[in-house]
Amino acid sequence: MFHPRALRILVLAALTAACNTDETPEAAEGEGSTETLAKAEKPEDGLRRSKAERGKHAQGGEIDAAALEAAKIAPADVAAPPADAQTTASGLAYKALTEAPGDQHPRAHDGVEVVYTGWTTDGEMFDSSLKRGKPASFPLNRVIAGWTEGLQLMTAGDKYRFWIPESLAYKGQPGRPAGMLVFDVELVSIDKQPDPPAVPSDVAGPPADAKKTASGLAYKVLTAGTGADHPKAESEVTVHYSGWTTDGQMFDSSVLRGEPASFPLNRVIAGWTEGLQLMTTGAKYRFWIPVDLAYQNRPGKPAGMLVFDVELLGIK
Fold first, then answer.
1. Residue 314, exposed/middle/buried by CB under 10 A (0-12, 13-18, 19+)?
2. What is the C-alpha to C-alpha distance for residues 286 and 226, in angstroms, rounded to an integer?
3. pLDDT tens digits, residue range 98-126?
4. Which is more confident, 75 or 196?
5. Cystine design at 271: which of 176, 195, 196, 293 (Cβ 3.0–4.6 Å)?
């Protein structure tokens, strides 16, 4: 599934008003990134959530002091997965502590509400939703990879323990918990989201009927616009969009969040600044943006040529 508009360019929800940075195991840098179009190098220290999500738990609950104290005592098997733990192909280890009836699992793009505590393998608790007296809510694809994978194994009411290898956690990112991390997670509820937009059949490269500008930007018109005016580079635009890498992996979508994005057109990647000036209100275009007009392979950003479907909803 937001302000300030200047920086809420691609996921704002998961587009702007950040959640508290201690509220969830947010994604390692470059994973589940929220402002993927923005030029500004703003650290993504938290998740982005929709207005509805932010309001859902706006007030902190009463802290259960006894539960919090108990959570500080690490599990006996915190140092490593025990023999009865299961391990996935990615290296994620887990065991069910409590299993509830039900067969509905969250998908990667769904929202979840959880109660959790996390420890390093030396038994130090580094975070817990119990400290805030309320569950944490977030889009599942906006957290570390071990959470995104692991919670999809659960149904509402389940409580699992996860041993998440560093490759699925923070990957040695400075200022984050290091090494393998251990979490006890209770899945309180699932907020089902719409299915993601279909991957374009021509995502791998511009088709023969695509047009190309002198800069190398390729595009095609999916729906003609109904307006007469084109945005200028300094205009503020409101859009719906979805973005993919050329292997068909979606890395962001305002459609999934159910809320358009608004931003100054001169504050985004060059391919967007150029491409949206070709459009009029109501138009929907597909863009193939070469790497030199996108993120130029900067670390932590989507790499290579990027493909976007963009619908221009308004111009200011």
1. middle
2. 17
3. 999 988 999 998 999 999 999 999 999 99
4. 75
5. 293
Q: Domain-by-domain residue ranges, the chain?
A: 57-191, 211-315
Which CATH architecture group holds 211-315?
Answer: Roll (3.10)
**Best CA proximity match to 265, nearest among 4, 6, 2, 55:** 6
- Is CATH 3.10.180.10 what the domain over 57-191 is classified as, yes or no? no
Beta bridge partners of residue 93, listed in sequence order: 87, 163
Cα dihedral: 195, 237, 18, 268 (round 10): 100
For tokens 């996390």, the residue is: 118
Asked whether the beta carbons of 284 and 278 are under 8 A apart, the reply is: no
57-191 and 211-315 agree in CATH topology: yes
Long-range contacts of 98-104 (CB under 8 A, 24+ apart): 98/157, 98/158, 98/159, 98/186, 99/158, 100/155, 100/156, 100/157, 100/158, 101/155, 101/157, 102/155, 102/156, 102/157, 103/155, 104/155, 104/156, 104/190
Buried b / exposed e along 266-294 (16+ C-beta atoms within 10 A): ebbbbbbbbbbebbebebbbbbbbbbebb
* Residue with token string 């251990």: 182
| Phi–psi pair at 313, nearest 5 degrees | -95, -30
Q: Please spell the DSSP secondary structure of 244-312, one letter per residue.
A: EETTS-EEEEHHHHTS-EEEEGGGB-HHHHHHHTT--TT-EEEEEE-GGGTTTT-TTS--SSEEEEEEE
CB 130 within 8 A of CB 64: yes
Confidence of residue 30 (pLDDT cuts 50, 70, 90): very low
Joined tokens for residue 288: 């193939």
